[in-house]
Amino acid sequence: MAIQSAHNLNRPLTPPSQGYGVRVSLRPNDPFIRLLGPDWNRMHWYATAAERDAAMADMSRKHDYSRATDSPALVFTKVENLTVSRSLTPAG
Predict the structure, then answer these.
(1) Vertex 16, ends 12 and 18: CA angle to 5°?
(2) What's the pLDDT tens digit per position in 6-61?
(3) CB-based contact 84:45 (threshold 8 Å)
(4) Burial class (CB within 10 angstroms; exposed 0-12, middle 13-18, buried 19+) of 5
(5) What would the DSSP string read from start to end of the chain?
(6) Whether the model pTM is above 0.90
(7) I need a surface site. Which of 20, 67, 72, 74 has the fewest CB within 10 A?
(8) Which residue would you say has higher pLDDT here, 30 or 68?
């Protein structure tokens, strides 16, 4: 995968071989589904479950400048790549 403007990244790209992740997706009634499609999601990978849980808490928190009636527009789901996190090798 080529990065157009790597200097704009606020952290290095995380290789997908890390075992603990957060899937970010849209709620079914989100109007952005018309632009991005119903299957849109973004994966964020972390080396440990603790790192993943801390990042997920930060991503899903209510931001300081949110209005009282605002609610999170994204869905955050914990995922685990068992092959990597448990050091399992695929049966072949």
Answers:
(1) 90
(2) 666 666 665 556 889 999 999 988 888 999 999 999 999 998 999 999 999 998 88
(3) no
(4) exposed
(5) ---TTGGG-SSPPPPTT-SEEEEEEE-TT-TTHHHH-TT-EEEEEESSHHHHHHHHHHHHSPPTT--TT----EEEEEEE-HHHHTT-----
(6) no
(7) 67
(8) 30
